[in-house]
Amino acid sequence: MNPKPIYQLLRNGFPEIIISGEITAFDGSKTVFQSAEVDSRYPARSLLKPFQYLAMGHLERKTSEDWHVAALGSISANAEQVKQLEHWTSHNPLVDLTKRIHLPVAHACFPKHLAIAQTCHSRGWPVETYLSQNHPFHQSVLKVLSRILGEQEESLEFVVDGCKLPSPVLRMEQMARLFQVLAQGTKDPQLQTIRDMMLGNPDWIGGPERVDSELMKKNPNHLIAKEGADGLLAVGVLPNAAYPQGVGLVV
Questions:
Q1: Of 72, 75, 160, 216, which alpha carbon lies 20 to 30 A from 208's?
Q2: Which residues contact 29 (CB under 8 A, 6 or more apart)?
Q3: How far is residue 68's CA from residue 31's CA, in Å, rounded to a whole number?
Q4: pTM of this prediction exceeds 0.70
Q5: Residue 5 β-bridge partners
């Protein structure tokens, strides 16, 4: 980690609150801004949900469902979201599997876990071991990240996320690159579909008053955003006159 002060509040000219962090921006060709002296690495965690969904293959096999939009985000589990999820998944037998690992409907990652379980069921993968890093789903995630980043799969390291899934440790530039490609949407029609799902359903990415959802609602069709755990935020600015390939920004 190489955090530097990036925001402060003054009282009569004296610093009272100082927030330290790192910011990296990538425009499709190069890193256009980096606040730290080195390219730090962090567990990507929930920033990866759009790319984990891509790795499931639902779009490729045309098996996506309405509730899958919730798998792209980290839900707030407010009353409206939980009610809608219960309605969407009321006849899905795989709900019991997520309950067995103590992941109720109100968990922020419930939709993603259910979508992974559905993927295992449809592709003949073992459902009981989907939390293991060696599971075919996580190998599929590795292939997706390797293809987008242009790096060898073996170069990525993993930690265990709070919801028990393996999470790759990525450099700030790598995370910014992922969201630049997602925002650009032209390199992969499936990524464009995921981008448009996020643009059209900002409240399912987080929830009311969540930073990622509010950013998208206040800048409709201009950017996508996704929070990660413990202070991570990724923003993908769609292509525009200043940045024809868009910009990926990670804080």
A1: 160
A2: 245
A3: 32
A4: yes
A5: 20
